[in-house]
Amino acid sequence: MFNIRDYGAVGDGTQLDSPAIQKAVDACAAAGGGTVFIPAGRYLCGTVHLKSHIHILIEKGAYLLGSTNLADFDPREENPANCEYQDPSHSYYHFSLFHADNQEDIAITGFGEIDMQSVWDGDGRPDENGKRKWWRGAKIIAFKECREIVIRDLSMKNATDLAVYVAGCEYVTISGLQIVSHIDGVSPDCCRNVTISDCIIDSADDAIVPKCSYTLGYLKAMENLTVSNCVLRSNAAALKFGTETNSAFKNITVTGCTICDTQLNGIAIQSADGAIVEGITISNMTLRNVGNPILIQVVNRARGPKPECEKIGQIRNIILSDIIITGPYPETFQATRAQFAWTHIDNDLTLKGIRHPLLIAGQPDSLIQNVTMSNVVFRAHGGGTVEDRDIQLNEVRDDYPGSTVFGPKFPTYGLYALNADNLKLYNVEFSTEYPDARDEMILKNVTNFKRV
Predict the structure, then answer these.
(1) Which DSSP category does 116 fall into?
(2) Among 72, 359, 409, 451, which residue's beta carbon has the most beta carbons within 10 A?
(3) In degrees rounded to 5, what are phi and psi of residue 264?
(4) Three-state DSSP class for 23?
(5) pLDDT for residue 80
(6) Which residues contact 129 (CB under 8 A, 6 or more apart)?
(7) For residue 136, which of 108, 161, 111 has the smallest C-alpha distance?
(8) What is the pLDDT of residues 193-237, one digit of tens each?
(9) CB 447: neighbour CB atoms within 10 A?
(10) What are the respective helix, strand and coil percentages of the chain, to the nearest 5?
C-alpha cells in the first residue's frame, strides 16, 4: 500500500497535495500496481493522472478539495479533434481531478469526499462579439478508452463540469455514489458493459445521462448498460439518453429508480444526430413532481460528420412497465441542494413548474416503432380548459430535443403521440388532480395502436 503521506502529502487543506498524490501513483505503477491510500485529512488537489492497476482508496474522513486555482489542473486540450460535433464538455478530458487515457484496471473507492468547491472558469458573460466564453471548471473524473473501471462509495459535490465522465470505456462499475453537481452527474459516453447502481444524484443539469457522441473520432455505440436502484433529482433531465446521439444505444435496462422534483424530463429517450436507439427496458420506477415524466423523441439536428450522421435516426423496441407518476406539480419550486449552473451570475434559484403529458414524437420519415407501456399510473396535474383543447403545437424537426420545444402547454394531459407505429398500452391509467377539459390522449399519424 502506498500512503500519500509517505510521499509528502500534508493534508492541511492549504498546501497543494496533488504532486505528492501523483508521486504515490507513479511509485505504485512502477511496482506493478496496488493501492494508493489517502488517509483522513484535507487535501488540496489539481490534476492527478491515473495508470493501469491502480486503486485509489479514499478513507472516511479524507476530503479531496479541488483547487481554487485552475492553473493547478492540466490545461484543456488545444484544438481537440471533432469538438464541433458535441458540446465542449465532451471534448476535454485533461482539465479534471482524476484523468486516465487508455489504461486498465483502475478503481477509485472509499467513503471519503471530493469537493470541487464550485469553482468556475470565468463568469460566463459574453465577450465584445456577443459570444459566450467557456466558463465551466474542472471535471472530477474523466476517463477515455479505459477498461475495467470501478468507482464506488464516494461523496462528490460542487463540480462545475461533468462530475463523472467515462468515454469509450468498457467494463465499468459505478456504485454507491452521492453526487451534488452543478452540471451532469454520471455520463457514460460510447461505452460498453456498464453498471450504475445505488447512487443518489442531485444535479443542476442532467443526473444520469448516457451518450453516444463523436468524441472518440469514430462512431461507437453505447451498449450493454444497466442502471438500478438510484435516486435522482435534476433541474433538467433525471435520466436522459442523449442529447449527443451520433451512433447508437443498444441493450439497456433501467429498474428500481426514484425520480423526484425534476423540472423537465424524468425519463428521456432521444435520437438527435442520427443514432439508432433500440432495446431499452425501463421498469419499477417512481416519479414525483416531474415536469415531463416520459419523453421519446426523434429530431434531425444532425450534428456530426457527413455522411455518417446525415441520416435521421430511429427509435424502436422500447418497453416501459410498472411506473407510478404523481404530483404535486407546483407553479414554481426552488432548486434544492444543487443549484443552477448559472447562479454565479444571477443567483435565481426559482424553477418554473412544467406540466406536460407523456410524449412520443417521431418524424414522418422516422416513426417511433414498437413502444409498449404496461402497468403505468399517471396522475397529472390537470386544470386544462376547453380553450386548451385547440392549442397548436410547434413543428419540431431540426431543434434541440425536449418537450418544451413544442410550446409551454399541450392540448392533452395524459399522452401525446405523433408519428409512431405499433404503440401498445396495457393497463395504463390517466387521471388528474384537478378537473381538466382536455382529452387524455391525442394520437397523430399513429398506426397499429392498441390499448387494453
Answers:
(1) -
(2) 359
(3) -105, -100
(4) helix
(5) 77
(6) none
(7) 161
(8) 999 999 999 999 999 999 999 999 999 999 999 999 999 999 999
(9) 12
(10) 10, 50, 40
Is the per-residue pLDDT at 319 higher than 90? yes
Scored b (16 or more CB within 10 A) or e, 379-401 reads: bbbbbbeeebeebebeebeeeeb
Q: What stretch of H or E contains 346?
A: helix 343-346
How far apart, in whole angstroms, are the C-alpha atoms of residue 38 and residue 113?
A: 11
The residue type of 423 is: L
Q: How many angstroms separate the CA atoms of 142 and 50, rounded?
A: 10
Q: How many angstroms from the chain centroid is the CA of residue 96?
A: 18
- Give percent of the chain above pLDDT 90: 84
Read off the pLDDT of residues 392-415 as tens digits, 9 standing for 90 and up. Answer: 999 999 989 999 999 999 999 999
Q: What is the pTM of this model?
A: 0.95
Residues 287-296: pLDDT tens digits?
Answer: 999 999 999 9
Peptide bond connecting 75 to the previous residue in cis, omega within 30 degrees of 0: no
Radius of gyration, alpha carbons of the chain = 22
pLDDT confidence tier of residue 340, bands split at 50, 70 and 90 = very low
395, HSE (Cβ side, Cα atoms, 13 Å): 3
Q: How far is the C-alpha of 144 from the C-alpha of 82, rounded, in Å?
A: 15
Give the residue among 226, 225, 234 at the shortest CA–CA distance from 207.
234
Cα 288 to Cα 97: distance, rounded to the nearest angstrom: 34
Residue range 87-108, pLDDT digits in tens: 888 989 999 999 999 999 999 9
Question: What's the distance, CA 150 to chain centroid?
Answer: 18
- Strand spans (E) along 145-275: 147-152, 155-159, 164-167, 170-175, 178-181, 186-189, 192-197, 200-203, 222-228, 231-234, 237-241, 248-255, 258-271
Q: How many of the other CB atoms lie within 10 Å of CB of 18?
A: 24
**Residue with the three cell numbers 434544492:** 336
Nearest by Cα to 103 from 15, 169, 159: 169
For residue 77, pLDDT over 50 is answered with yes
Contacts of 372 (CB under 8 A, 6+ apart): 318, 319, 320, 321, 424, 425, 426
